[in-house]
Design a protein that fits this description.
Distance between the termini: 51 Å
Strand content: 5-15%
Oligomer: single chain
Helix content: 55-70%
Length: 521
């Protein structure tokens, strides 16, 4: 177990980096920040030269891979870090200088236990991309297929585990301060970050996620997931088919290829809604570098290390919240927050509905260029404090991805209205999932499942309370006082001396026998 002094040393080192980038000023000026945290920030920045403008993204980039992932998560939490830092963290690029190919070759050969030449006819030593966790190389398999080979950086698992252990230690100490620090649940935030990134660190999990998403989106026209080469995939190496197409970030290339950019924007939003609301399993790392557009307009996604899941009940609540905000039904949106227990029951539903109206009304009917989903989330986070809403970690990935999708859609079509695109899809899904037919089917499925479980329930009850046998029940037996005091519950005080004497005599006999036996041997 890591000693506290080691955690403190790491935090001081990281604090100095944050201080040099001016990233501690926001905490010191935040009226909701706990006083002990402000004092630590002042200590960390003592003597440091701070930049004119805070550069949170630059600081997290310098600290390392685990900090980059933490920064990406915090970019969706303006309630935790503030609106300015959240916007700055959205510019955080998950990229680092590449690892020399000799080390990459060693990882591949150790992972498969065979020479790299037996797997690939050729592999380019210069990576096409180098992120904080892995880097990607273009290759050709021994049977002639073009592929992309993703390889984990050496010792990335150990380095990440070390840093996250300190995050957990710091979050636990922060949460015990109570008040605002407790409401924001920093331990849950770090735990979610840990689970997200641990999945990224097992490339077999990423391959399985890609396969699962491909199956879920099989019937959706215009969206595709690259095929997996399972024979060339391990926990440290992932091999997928090579994708030819223009990056969604390259608007000039998209226009030159004759693509309809507003249509692409609508398709991107609808495919995301299909994943998140209809399937409950969505690509949660939809930045510009992970989306390509092929010649026929098909969107191809790559990099499935971060995936989000939402259970059916949460999806129903989410769909009703989105539809309620688009139609102005703030009362229903408020009721859902109480039903989901996102807002404690001692608050007033109507008051919460009014607060939601203050957030939603300025946005209705306006394009993203004027008001955005990100601003809506900022507004919603602003009222969480007033209504004692705890952070919902299971929705953090969804919030992060919504902001990403909005940014991509706006780049393709600055005049897109996210509500106009989302409302028909959400309305139809709610009708299918909450209509009379769906309710009848759900009730039948639930009741039949309950009936099917009844025999097993009866068997467990019988095991707990077995039937009486044929022999008559034994009558209560009287308590007997034994000479050594080991008998029944009722022992007379006069027998204690007899017991002590008998014990002494018995002990002497045993000791004599042991001595005599030792002498004879």
């Amino acid at each position: 177990m890591t000693r506290p002094i080691t955690h403190i040393a790491r935090l001081v080192k990281w604090g100095r980096v944050l201080a040099r980038h001016g990233a501690l000023r926001g905490i010191e000026n935040d009226r909701n920040a706990p006083a002990p945290v402000k004092r630590l920030c002042r200590i960390a920045r003592f003597g440091a030269r701070q930049g004119a403008e805070p550069d949170y993204a630059g600081a997290f980039q310098e600290i390392g891979p685990a900090a980059i992932k933490l920064g990406q998560a915090l970019a969706t939490r303006p309630d935790l870090v503030g609106e300015g830092p959240a916007r700055n963290l959205l510019t955080l690029q998950d990229s680092l200088p590449p690892v020399p190919f000799a080390q990459i070759r060693a990882v591949i050969e150790e992972s498969f236990g065979k020479p790299i030449e037996s797997l690939f006819a050729s592999i380019e030593e210069e990576p096409v991309g180098a992120a904080s966790i892995a880097q990607v190389h273009r290759a050709v398999t021994t049977d002639g297929r073009k592929v992309a080979v993703k390889v984990l950086r050496p010792r990335i698992r150990e380095n990440f585990a070390r840093d996250v252990e300190t995050y957990e230690w710091a979050a636990a100490h922060l949460e015990v301060l109570g008040g605002e620090a407790q409401r924001l649940r920093p331990r849950a935030v770090v735990d979610n970050l840990k689970r997200w990134t641990l999945r990224e660190l097992d490339l077999r999990r990423e391959a399985a996620s890609a396969s699962e998403l491909a199956e879920a989106m099989k019937g959706i026209h215009g969206y595709r997931v690259p095929g997996i080469d399972w024979d060339r995939t391990t926990g440290s190496v992932l091999t997928v088919e090579w994708v030819d197409g223009a990056k969604m970030s390259d608007l000039d290339a998209l226009r030159a290829a004759g693509h309809d950019l507003p249509a692409l924007a609508r398709k991107l939003v609808l495919t995301f809604l299909t994943q998140a609301i209809a399937s409950g399993f969505f690509h949660a790392d939809m930045h510009q570098g992970n989306l390509f557009v092929q010649a026929d307009g098909t969107i191809v996604a790559i990099d499935f290390g971060i995936m989000g899941r939402i259970n059916r009940q949460a999806r129903l609540w989410l769909a009703e919240i989105l539809y309620g905000l688009t139609t102005g039904n703030y009362r229903r949106v408020a009721e859902i927050h109480f039903e989901a227990q996102y807002v404690p029951g001692y608050h007033n539903v109507d008051e919460f509905a009014t607060a939601l109206r203050a957030v939603g009304e300025p946005m209705r009917g306006k394009p993203v260029s004027e008001l955005s989903v990100g601003q809506m989330l900022d507004g919603l986070f602003a009222i969480t404090r007033d209504f004692d809403m705890q952070v919902q970690p299971h929705l953090l990935l969804l919030q992060k991805t919504m902001v990403m999708v909005e940014g991509l859609a706006t780049a393709l079509d600055p005049d897109i209205n996210m509500w106009d695109v989302a409302a028909p899809f959400v309305k139809n899904w709610i009708r299918d999932e909450l209509g009379p037919e769906a309710m009848i089917v759900d009730r039948l499925r639930e009741d039949i499942g309950t009936l099917a479980r009844l025999p097993a329930l009866v068997r467990r009850i019988e095991e707990k309370f077995p039937p009486k046998g044929g022999a008559p029940e034994q009558a209560p037996l009287p308590d007997i006082d034994l000479i050594l005091g080991l008998g029944g519950a009722r022992k007379r005080q006069s027998n204690h001396w007899v017991g002590y004497g008998a014990a002494a005599i018995l002990g002497g006999v045993v000791a004599w026998a042991f001595t005599y036996w030792s002498f004879l041997s």
